[in-house]
Amino acid sequence: MKKITYDEAIDMLQEHEYPIEKGEDLSTPALRKLGEIIGEEFYFIDNEERTESFDFVYKWLEVASGSTRIHRRDLLEKQLLRQGLNPKNFEYFLKWFNWGMPPHAGWGLGLGRFMLILTGRRNIREVVLFPRDKKRLVP
């Protein structure tokens, strides 16, 4: 299984004339291009020197990701503001940090995304019973 750093992923994309700069997120179109470059195999993207996180990808599809989580409310609120988000919209989640949150980490497997790989489908709506979108967040 292949393992590449974030910087290597950006370098590969730039070498193939994909318009991306270091520091940008790897969008779905960027992952699609990276998948074309790497081919049909699973690979990890990480960079232990920059972040405590990883993405596990097949072709263009992020199947799982994990990281050390922010455990301080003040830092989390600063991150939300930096992303242009209003912390008041996240109060239901943020309130749990008022009592203290221990340092923690985790990872998650996208079952719907994994089903896309197994079935060969191209749209998550074909493999998920109640897919979410902008108009439907709950079944």
Outline the structure in words:
The structure is a single chain. This protein is 32% helix and 20% strand. With 139 residues, it is an alpha+beta fold. The longest helix has 11 residues, at 28-38. It is globular and about 45 Å long. The protein starts with a strand and ends in a 20-residue tail after the last helix. The model has no long low-confidence stretch (mean pLDDT 91).
In short:
The chain has 139 residues and is α+β, with helices and mostly antiparallel strands. It is built from 5 helices and 5 strands; from the N terminus they run βααβββααβα.
CATH topology of the largest domain: BirA Bifunctional Protein, domain 2
Number of domains: 2
Q: Give the overall silhouette.
A: globular
Between the first and last Cα atoms, what is the distance in angstroms?
A: 37 Å
The main sheet orders its strands as 1-2-3-4-5
What do the pLDDT scores average to? 91
Count of separate DSSP helical elements: 5
The CATH architecture classification of the largest domain is 2-Layer Sandwich
List the secondary-structure elements in sequence, H or E. Answer: EHHEEEHHEH
Question: Uncertain runs with pLDDT below 50, 5 residues or more?
Answer: none
Number of strands: 5
Radius of gyration using CA atoms only: 17 Å
> What is the CATH C-level name of the largest domain?
Alpha Beta
Largest sheet: 5 strands, mixed
In percent terms, what proportion of residues is strand?
Answer: 15-25%
Key phrases:
BirA Bifunctional Protein, domain 2; 5-stranded mixed β-sheet; 32% helix; 139 residues; 2 domains; alpha+beta; single chain
